[in-house]
Amino acid sequence: MARFHDLEVTDIRKTIRDAVVVTLKPANGSAAAFDFTQGQYLTFRREFDGEELRRSYSICAGRDDGILQVGIKRVDGGAFSTWANEQLNVGDTVQAMPPMGSFFADLDPANEKQYLGFAGGSGITPVLSILKTTLAREPNSTFTLVYANKGVNTIMFREELEDLKNIYMGRFNVIHVLETDAQEIDLFTGLVTEDKCGQLFRTGWIDIDTVDTAFICGPEPMMLGIAAALRAHGLTDAQIKFELFASSQPGRARKKAISKDAASGANQATAAITLDGATQTIRMPKDESLLDAALSNNMDAPYACKAGVCSTCRCRVLEGEVDMVANHALEDYEVEKGYVLSCQSYPVTDNVVVDYDQ
Amino acid sequence: MTQEMSLDSYLAQGGVLTNPMNVPPRYRAELMKLMTTFVDSELAGAAGFADVINAGPGIKERIAAAKIVLEKTDNANRVLKIMAEFGVDSDRYANHHPWTARLERNADIGASRGDHDMRLAVFNYPLEGWTDAVVMNLLMGRAVTVQLAEFAMVSYQPLAEAFRAIAPIEARHSELAEEGLVKLAEAGTTGAQASINYWWPRVAASFGSAESARFDSLKKMGLRRTPNMDLKSRWAAETGAVLENMGLKAG
Question: Is the minimum CB–CB distance between A337 and chain B shorter than 8 Å?
């Protein structure tokens, strides 16, 4: 099971006004767990005002760079990204799960492929990792990047991309499309839409007929438009790789408000909890969820989302009554059989017996 | 760059989601259910088939059966890895259900699931010997092929990619079953038709019912495209033709 590891911040620098590139070093001998594939992301967690937030950010380093690096653009009102941009310092420790994600194509030094990448704003981070790794590991492949930004001063990694153009002369090309800043070529101004892609393909800026694989990372409308254009020009779904970037990460469900005082009073229940064949009987406050009670008594109860949606924490109530405050996962017939989501269930009767093994 | 679009409308227009963090709650629940159904069915199917390996009449048949068990377990593992990205403890998951458990041969549970897992109802029935296993594998293998063609287009990209990789492997399993059934017929073995009659309605039930409200909401999320009844008709027509070629009848 994926779990969180400590990582030390070894470098932090601004790439544009409101985005930082953070270099991380796995602590406590967990380096092997962070051996990533180009295009993958890390999921971080941090508590803000007592509530845990989890956020994913793509790795922007290439596999051959020898470092682990993520790009974090500040989102208006975004607690995590604002904190990373304004308060995070070298020497701090952050927590992240090992790299995940399948936004990549398998590489082979013998390949002679033509790759096409589309990035919108901070969507560049995984695409940068992919193109750096690909150009280094497939000496006969080429990569064309279409990079959409608001204006010149919001282009993340602008200098790094210029350097790459010089290193991989003739194999790497960047087309900057800017929403507001006028450019010499009209085609390069505006949004990257289905229309715009069609024009890039027709006017020969991009030789779409030879493209083997396309990567798209950006906001939703941009991804839809580009994908439609690629399909219209003959690419199959298997040739198009998507990464929807972080803008639409939904907020997490609020925890049920727990009054610390109430927990110490007479408002207690006795719960017999069976897990992995062993039963433990505990005293718990009635305003604590069954899952949290089990966890706080060192029982290794299964759970994933703690939001009532994934059903991983499902258990069966054998005796007594509980109140399940949210259920987005269990079917009616399961509820009838006495199954509850333990992360959403609070004891009603003074005695409850629940079983995770059923 | 500044256009706003709701996730619902993005999905309704064919957009794809790419990691657990951009998956909304209801979508996540349906996706988890889809994945657990697949994983549980593969694990239960492999576990049931493992017992049959030794019943294979020759070494080739036993190799084919062992390969099927291996590959179905591997296919379960591929999807379990995606579930792990949602926080599921994959080691515990793979071990805390009794995958070999079966009901009575004559139990009649329709399309309902068991108490312990999300395997398709059909995987709750026991196999009875080699011929029965080959028939079940043929009928269900063809059903899985039809179902995977549908699920290889789900809007969760990592799962769609896993299903695209799994589909040809599962298709090969039903081909092996077809070859096995031809061999049995050549050897003059009887009993295939009785097994077809037993398994046909049970495999047919695995396509689910013609519930429209639920299908519509799944369709809006990009998790379904073709109605259950259309998939079932396709399976019945294709599989019926295969059986007919062997002088057998659909159940």
Answer: yes
